[in-house]
């Protein structure tokens, strides 16, 4: 069983995924060390997002395995994978994906509340992160009432709220202009480094990949040399 | 980099001696290649010879460092011309080498894909260095790093585009080869 807050190695070995006749992953191997920031790049259709979904336990591979430290996670039941994602992973998607009916503050507190943490603790952590990300004064607004960049910073705060082992980011700045994108990336990578979370980040932009410690380049569902 | 025109521009606000000009140059542009003293004096000597600057005095101290120069009317005209004229849009020869390497690799029957992969990694490594410099640096450093990063980004887009079309390019190169064999 994984422990929330502890930092672990994430390893995908010989991963294969097919969608009908389309081969999305074809024997991909990747290891993410604790605290490491890794960018996944590759042409359209090379399997970038599929690899991220498999490593994050959202998608089950047809072949191969995914381990978080010693624990194999790809063959867990749906409910156990879901619970593991909540405890050990954080997510930043291209369009923020915040709950539109909740304020930024409530969105950031959500993972902690779902994990059963006391309200006061969630409140404290939410305020701390929203402050770090310079959106504290917008805490009571809903995602639709703030700019795309501000919403994405709140999404970063939400991803970090429960101090996950790994944060998965799929084109985290894809919907932002370059300046707003830089603010989000500085926040995401800066705070992840400070708190020891790993980041796996899919991007097609080299300037985004430059924030990572290294880049994994995919071609035809495999990691290119 | 047009050192002579930059020195001319640095001289325009008020007369200066070589030492101050060199210090300012290095502060703004020296990241890529700091100026040597001899280069400054040789350049100032040429500008003086061409009537674009005048020697107006010698500050106390020893050596060519202490010669004070001022821009002339002709110098201001030349500076205007240089600033007004757009630079010729062109890629540097080192970037063309990438294109040449791909064609030579394919025409000699070598795989070009691993070469492009290695180049991509080298470019991404450099971009990481620049990003770190950018983060730690002031506004000048940031803009200097941005300039190189955007160019590297353009190279990477070209590398991706070339990598996606290697099979077609290899077929094209081999057709040219075959046609040449037939004509012999």
From TrEMBL, chain A:
Q: Pfam families, alphabetically?
A: ABC_tran
Task: Cite the GO molecular-function annotations of the record.
Answer: ATP binding
SUPFAM superfamilies, per the entry: P-loop containing nucleoside triphosphate hydrolases
What keywords are assigned to this protein? ATP-binding, Nucleotide-binding, Transport
State the InterPro entries in the record. Answer: AAA+_ATPase, ABC_transporter-like_ATP-bd, ABC_transporter-like_CS, ABC_transpr_LolD-like, MacB-like_ATP-bd, P-loop_NTPase
Which residue ranges does the record assign to the ABC transporter domain?
Answer: 10-225
* ATP-binding recorded as keyword: yes
Query: What is the name attached to this protein's record?
Result: ABC transporter ATP-binding protein
Give the species.
Plantactinospora endophytica
From TrEMBL, chain B:
SUPFAM superfamilies named in the record: Winged helix' DNA-binding domain
Domain named Transcription regulator PadR N-terminal: residues: 7-80
Q: Which InterPro entries match?
A: Tscrpt_reg_PadR_N, WH-like_DNA-bd_sf, WH_DNA-bd_sf
Domain of life according to the entry: Bacteria
Any single Pfam family the record assigns to this protein: PadR
Alphabetical list of Gene3D superfamilies matching this protein: Winged helix-like DNA-binding domain superfamily/Winged helix DNA-binding domain (1.10.10.10)
Its protein name is Transcription regulator PadR N-terminal domain-containing protein
Q: Which organism is it from?
A: Plantactinospora endophytica
């Amino acid at each position: 069983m994984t422990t929330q807050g502890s930092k672990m190695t994430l390893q995908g070995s010989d991963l294969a995924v097919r969608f009908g006749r389309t081969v999305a992953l074809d024997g991909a191997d990747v290891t993410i060390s604790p605290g490491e920031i890794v960018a996944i790049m590759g042409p359209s259709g090379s399997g970038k997002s599929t690899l991220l979904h498999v490593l994050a336990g959202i998608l089950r591979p047809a072949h191969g395995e995914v381990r978080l430290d010693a624990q194999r996670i790809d063959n867990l039941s749906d409910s156990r994978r879901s619970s593991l994602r909540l405890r050990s992973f954080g997510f930043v998607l291209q369009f923020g994906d915040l709950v539109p009916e909740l304020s930024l503050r409530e969105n950031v507190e959500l993972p902690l509340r779902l994990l059963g943490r006391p309200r006061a603790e969630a409140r404290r952590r939410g305020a701390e992160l929203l402050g770090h990300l310079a959106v504290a004064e917008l805490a009571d607004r809903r995602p639709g009432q703030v700019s795309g960049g501000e919403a994405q910073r709140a999404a970063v705060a939400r991803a970090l709220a429960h101090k996950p082992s790994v944060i998965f980011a799929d084109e985290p700045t894809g919907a932002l202009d370059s300046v707003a994108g830089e603010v989000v990336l500085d926040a995401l990578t800066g705070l992840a480094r400070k708190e020891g979370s790993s980041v796996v980040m899919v991007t097609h932009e080299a300037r985004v990949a430059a924030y990572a410690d290294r880049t994994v380049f995919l071609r035809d569902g495999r990691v290119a040399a | 980099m047009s050192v002579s025109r930059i020195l001319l521009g640095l001289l325009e606000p008020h007369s200066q001696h070589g030492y101050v000009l060199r210090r300012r140059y290095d502060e703004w542009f020296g990241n890529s290649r700091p100026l040597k003293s001899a280069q400054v004096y040789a350049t100032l000597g040429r500008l003086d010879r061409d009537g674009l600057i005048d020697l107006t005095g010698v500050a106390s101290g020893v050596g060519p460092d202490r010669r004070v120069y001022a821009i002339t009317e002709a110098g201001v005209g030349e500076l205007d011309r240089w600033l007004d004229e757009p630079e010729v849009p062109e890629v540097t020869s080192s970037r063309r080498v990438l294109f040449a390497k791909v064609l030579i690799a394919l025409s000699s029957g070598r795989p070009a894909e691993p070469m492009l992969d290695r180049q991509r990694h080298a470019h991404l490594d450099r971009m990481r260095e620049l990003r770190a410099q950018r983060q730690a640096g002031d506004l000048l450093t940031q803009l200097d790093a941005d300039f190189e990063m955007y160019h590297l980004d353009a190279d990477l887009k070209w590398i991706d585009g070339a990598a996606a079309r290697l099979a077609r390019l290899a077929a094209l190169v081999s057709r040219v080869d075959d046609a040449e064999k037939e004509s012999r």
